[in-house]
Design brief:
The complex is a heterodimer of chains A (221) and B (316). With 221 residues, chain A is mostly helical. Chain A has nine helices and no strands. Chain A is elongated. Helix content of chain B is 29%, strand content 29%. Chain B is elongated, with a radius of gyration of 22 Å. The two termini of chain B are 19 Å apart. Classes of the chains: A mainly alpha (221), B alpha/beta (316). Chain B: It comes from Kolteria novifilia.
């Protein structure tokens, strides 16, 4: 039954994911001097800096990933509230928390895949001799991987915002605002893995617990 | 007899509005129970509380002997719930939604699914978003009955369906009923349908369950008495069971829930020139019982309410 749920969620998120991935790849194509698709000229031309250095790649990636996180999270939570399909889903013989956490898991997986592919592609290009005149080591991609690991916090905040039965848009947006603030702070502070990862894990945990509780307690229909 | 559904003081507030008020309902296994009421009477909210989709403000509910608040997946697999409007993932095809739903159940009557699909002439390749309301209801019914549930809860399943589709749907439902020991709770606006299939009815008025009795009992208990006078219509005296009264010219219509010697004496005391007992089907009975003081909003202004006593208790 989990497989059926995962396939359903993948089918429902593939539209957003495909668009985001296409735009990310177009960005990477631009950063690589349009070596992949010469005719695609919608995004930055090749930037003559060291690949992954100075946060340029992450900055471009964030233009795609942050809107994806917000749209995907909110859409996944509200789609079935709007059309009443939660009434169908929640009557299946499966714990409501399992169903919601599966949704969340698929959403996070989509977020990770959509970012991992361009990071790997750009990294592979940067690691290939003759492509650019600057040194490269895979450890230089650490900032991009960190961005990938922490950005689902914004997704989870958007999901919680969609699920939360707030009466006023200001209070409904609180989880998204808190997640965005937290994500911003995490990405800005100096590289302290020993501190970032446990704090992020706690934040993820709090969001997951809150999402699970709200999904169990709110009214549907 | 074992109870399939039991509620105790089930109450729901939306803000300060009490939508369902201290509902106490007991439905035996094997009963076909119709929950009736006008729009906004609290039927859908009651059904959503029974299925755990809405949390009660107070009170509790049990399905198949288990508290709804902690209903185990195994118990839920023995219960079918068809929500109002038959919400299903619209991007799926009929075949996909069947495969998706089947993944959740250990018991799944594949042959029944195939035969009902064939009966309704539904193609597995048809996309749900392209189906009519009637066909969506048919798909919902298939998904509901395939796991061979012991209890079916249907929230206005024939809402918006045309007469033919409704009849077909109901006949399928009757076939399910004929299987041993199945309990069905359904809400409906179509009283003709209820009369055909329900053993017992409950009527909700403004969130309160006013009637809970066998269908025939209700039809027999609610009486419409039309009195004709050769003078102005007199004041209607206090009388137990009097649900409503309206007068048009020299005619007075009285609706009683339970008509016995006490009510007969009250009618006689008015000294009419003619007393007529009007035969009513379930629809008429329901309308007369529930129309309440709103009937005074007549288009022609020829009818005036006479103390309709909306708080009068029901026929049960």
């Amino acid at each position: 039954m989990i497989r059926a749920l995962v396939l359903k969620e993948l089918r429902e998120t593939i539209g957003f994911a495909s668009i985001a991935l296409a735009v990310s790849l177009a960005i990477v194509n631009g950063l690589m001097g349009r070596t992949l698709l010469p005719s695609i000229d919608v995004l930055p031309q090749r930037i003559h800096v060291v690949p992954f250095a100075g946060g340029v790649f992450v900055a471009y990636l964030s233009y795609v990933v942050i809107p994806l996180a917000i749209a995907l999270g909110y859409r996944q939570a509200t789609r079935e509230l709007g059309n009443g399909v939660y009434l169908f889903l929640f009557h299946r013989p499966i714990a409501r928390s399992t169903l919601i956490l599966t949704k969340l898991g698929v959403g996070i997986a989509v977020m990770l895949v959509v970012q991992a592919i361009p990071i790997l592609l750009f990294g592979w290009w940067a690691a290939t001799p003759g492509n650019h005149p600057s040194p490269f080591e895979w450890s230089m991609t650490r900032g991009a991987w960190q961005f990938m690991l922490f950005s689902p916090i914004v997704y989870a905040g958007a999901f919680l915002t969609g699920l939360r039965p707030g009466r006023w848009i200001g209070t409904r947006l609180l989880p998204l605002a808190a997640s965005g603030l937290y994500f911003g702070v995490v990405m800005m502070v100096p590289d302290q893995w020993w501190l970032r990862i446990p704090v992020a894990a706690v934040f993820y945990g709090l969001l997951a617990v809150d999402i699970r509780a709200i999904a169990s307690e709110r009214d549907y229909g | 007899m074992t109870l399939a559904i039991r509620t105790e003081s089930l109450t729901k507030y939306y803000g300060s509005t009490k939508v369902v008020d201290s509902l106490g309902l007991s439905i035996d296994e094997g009963t076909v129970y119709a929950l009736l009421g006008r729009n906004g009477a609290g039927k859908s909210t009651t059904i959503k509380m029974l299925t755990g989709m809405v949390r009660p403000s107070y009170g509790r509910a049990e399905l198949l002997g288990e508290d709804v608040a902690t209903l185990a997946p195994e118990t839920r697999s023995r219960i079918a719930y068809l929500a109002e409007g038959h919400p299903l993932p619209s991007w799926m095809s009929v075949g996909e939604v069947i495969r998706f739903t089947r993944a959740f159940y250990e018991d799944w009557d594949h042959d029944l699914v195939e035969s009902v699909l064939d009966h309704f002439a539904l193609s597995k390749r048809a996309k749900l978003r392209r189906l009519s309301k009637g066909q969506l209801a048919q798909v919902s019914l298939i998904l509901g009955i395939a796991p061979d549930p012991e209890l079916l809860i249907l929230d206005d399943p024939t809402l918006g369906l045309d007469t033919n589709v409704r009849r077909d749907f109901l006949e399928s439902m009757i076939q399910i009923i004929q299987r041993r020991g199945r309990t069905i709770l359904f809400s409906s606006h179509v009283l003709g349908d209820v009369e055909r299939v329900a053993d017992r009815i409950g009527i909700m008025l403004d969130g309160v369950l006013r009637v809970d009795c066998p269908t025939e009992h209700f039809k027999e208990a609610v009486r419409k008495i039309v009195l004709t006078f050769d003078r102005d219509v007199p004041e209607v005296p206090e009388c137990p069971g009097l649900v409503g009264s309206w007068h048009v010219g020299h005619r007075l219509e009285l609706i009683f829930a339970g008509y016995g010697s006490e009510q007969e004496a009250a009618v006689a005391s008015l000294d009419p020139v003619e007393v007529e007992r009007v035969e009513m089907n379930l629809e008429d009975t329901f309308i007369e019982y529930t129309r309440g003081p709103r009937r005074s909003l007549s288009f022609f202004g020829t009818e005036e309410p006479d103390d309709p006593r909306p708080g009068a208790q029901g026929a049960a």
